[in-house]
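Q: Here's a chain of 121 amino acids. Please give me its 3D structure as C-alpha coordinates.
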Amino acid sequence: MDKEYVLQVAETAKNQLLATTPMNIVLSWGVEKFIATVFKEMPALKFNVNGRLFKGLVVVALNGSDYYEIYLVTYQETKCVTDRAFFNQVGEIIDRTIESGTNKTEYEQFCRQQWYELLAK
Protein backbone atom coordinates (compact mmCIF):
# COMPACT_ATOMS: atom_id res chain seq x y z
CA MET A 1 0.00 0.00 0.00
CA ASP A 2 1.28 3.46 -0.89
CA LYS A 3 2.92 5.11 2.12
CA GLU A 4 1.66 8.60 1.23
CA TYR A 5 -1.91 7.32 0.97
CA VAL A 6 -1.66 5.66 4.39
CA LEU A 7 -0.28 8.87 5.91
CA GLN A 8 -3.04 10.93 4.27
CA VAL A 9 -5.84 8.65 5.50
CA ALA A 10 -4.42 8.56 9.03
CA GLU A 11 -4.06 12.35 9.14
CA THR A 12 -7.61 12.81 7.85
CA ALA A 13 -8.99 10.33 10.40
CA LYS A 14 -7.13 12.10 13.23
CA ASN A 15 -8.31 15.54 12.12
CA GLN A 16 -11.92 14.34 11.80
CA LEU A 17 -11.79 12.68 15.21
CA LEU A 18 -10.41 15.79 16.89
CA ALA A 19 -12.81 18.13 15.06
CA THR A 20 -15.95 16.14 15.91
CA THR A 21 -15.15 15.09 19.48
CA PRO A 22 -14.94 17.55 22.40
CA MET A 23 -11.34 17.80 23.63
CA ASN A 24 -12.25 16.93 27.24
CA ILE A 25 -13.66 13.63 25.99
CA VAL A 26 -10.54 12.84 23.94
CA LEU A 27 -8.36 13.70 26.95
CA SER A 28 -10.42 11.38 29.18
CA TRP A 29 -9.24 8.49 27.02
CA GLY A 30 -5.59 9.00 28.01
CA VAL A 31 -4.56 9.11 24.34
CA GLU A 32 -0.93 8.59 23.42
CA LYS A 33 0.89 8.44 20.10
CA PHE A 34 -1.23 8.81 16.99
CA ILE A 35 0.42 6.55 14.40
CA ALA A 36 -0.30 5.93 10.71
CA THR A 37 -0.36 2.22 9.89
CA VAL A 38 -1.81 -0.49 7.71
CA PHE A 39 -4.25 -2.77 9.54
CA LYS A 40 -5.88 -5.79 7.89
CA GLU A 41 -4.80 -4.37 4.53
CA MET A 42 -6.53 -1.01 5.19
CA PRO A 43 -4.96 2.40 5.82
CA ALA A 44 -5.46 3.24 9.46
CA LEU A 45 -4.81 5.46 12.45
CA LYS A 46 -3.85 3.77 15.69
CA PHE A 47 -3.35 5.16 19.15
CA ASN A 48 -2.91 3.97 22.71
CA VAL A 49 -5.70 4.66 25.21
CA ASN A 50 -6.01 4.32 28.95
CA GLY A 51 -9.78 4.50 29.33
CA ARG A 52 -11.99 3.47 32.20
CA LEU A 53 -13.44 0.49 30.32
CA PHE A 54 -10.58 -0.38 27.97
CA LYS A 55 -6.80 -0.01 27.96
CA GLY A 56 -4.84 -0.83 24.82
CA LEU A 57 -4.78 0.19 21.17
CA VAL A 58 -7.63 1.71 19.21
CA VAL A 59 -7.41 1.31 15.44
CA VAL A 60 -9.55 3.39 13.08
CA ALA A 61 -9.24 1.92 9.58
CA LEU A 62 -10.79 3.13 6.32
CA ASN A 63 -12.40 0.25 4.46
CA GLY A 64 -13.13 -0.05 0.74
CA SER A 65 -16.70 1.17 1.23
CA ASP A 66 -15.52 4.53 2.68
CA TYR A 67 -16.62 3.64 6.20
CA TYR A 68 -14.37 3.53 9.21
CA GLU A 69 -13.84 0.27 11.02
CA ILE A 70 -12.96 0.59 14.70
CA TYR A 71 -10.95 -2.08 16.49
CA LEU A 72 -9.77 -2.54 20.08
CA VAL A 73 -6.46 -4.37 20.31
CA THR A 74 -4.74 -5.91 23.34
CA TYR A 75 -2.06 -8.55 23.61
CA GLN A 76 -4.83 -11.12 24.11
CA GLU A 77 -7.32 -10.20 21.40
CA THR A 78 -8.51 -7.94 18.62
CA LYS A 79 -12.17 -6.94 18.74
CA CYS A 80 -14.06 -5.20 15.94
CA VAL A 81 -16.36 -2.61 17.51
CA THR A 82 -17.95 -1.61 14.19
CA ASP A 83 -17.22 -1.99 10.52
CA ARG A 84 -19.51 0.82 9.38
CA ALA A 85 -18.91 4.18 11.06
CA PHE A 86 -19.25 7.57 9.42
CA PHE A 87 -16.47 10.05 10.25
CA ASN A 88 -18.71 12.00 12.63
CA GLN A 89 -19.60 8.87 14.62
CA VAL A 90 -16.06 7.67 15.35
CA GLY A 91 -15.46 9.71 18.52
CA GLU A 92 -18.83 8.83 20.03
CA ILE A 93 -18.34 5.13 19.33
CA ILE A 94 -14.83 5.14 20.79
CA ASP A 95 -15.94 7.05 23.89
CA ARG A 96 -18.87 4.73 24.56
CA THR A 97 -16.62 1.69 24.11
CA ILE A 98 -13.55 2.69 26.09
CA GLU A 99 -14.66 5.34 28.60
CA SER A 100 -18.30 6.27 29.23
CA GLY A 101 -20.19 3.03 28.54
CA THR A 102 -23.91 2.94 27.92
CA ASN A 103 -25.17 3.90 31.40
CA LYS A 104 -25.04 7.70 31.46
CA THR A 105 -26.05 7.98 35.15
CA GLU A 106 -23.35 5.54 36.26
CA TYR A 107 -20.72 7.40 34.24
CA GLU A 108 -21.77 10.76 35.66
CA GLN A 109 -21.42 9.30 39.17
CA PHE A 110 -17.96 8.02 38.30
CA CYS A 111 -16.93 11.47 36.99
CA ARG A 112 -18.26 13.20 40.12
CA GLN A 113 -16.31 10.76 42.30
CA GLN A 114 -13.13 11.43 40.34
CA TRP A 115 -13.71 15.19 40.69
CA TYR A 116 -14.16 14.90 44.46
CA GLU A 117 -11.01 12.82 44.75
CA LEU A 118 -9.02 15.44 42.81
CA LEU A 119 -10.33 18.24 45.01
CA ALA A 120 -9.60 16.32 48.23
CA LYS A 121 -5.86 16.08 47.47
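Q: Can you summarize the key feature?
A: The CA atoms of residues 33 and 68 lie 19 Å apart.
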